[in-house]
Amino acid sequence: MSVQTNQLRKAVEKRKRVLINKLLKLKYFKSTDGKQLHELTLTDLEVIHINLQCERGRKMPMEEMV
Hints:
Helix content is about 70%, strand content about 0%. By secondary structure, it is mainly α.
C-alpha cells in the first residue's frame, strides 16, 4: 500500500469519526435503513449531516439567523 493511499484512508476514517460524533450529539444513532453510523460510508455520513443541518436551519426562527 502506498503512503498516499494510507494517508487518504486515515483522513477518511478521521472525517468519519468527526461526523459520527456530530451526529450523536444531534441524537442521530441509526440510518433510516437501520444501519449503525460506523457501518455507513463517508458519503452517507456527509449527506445525513448536511440534511440534519438544513432541517435545523429551517426550524430556526428568522431572528436567530441574523
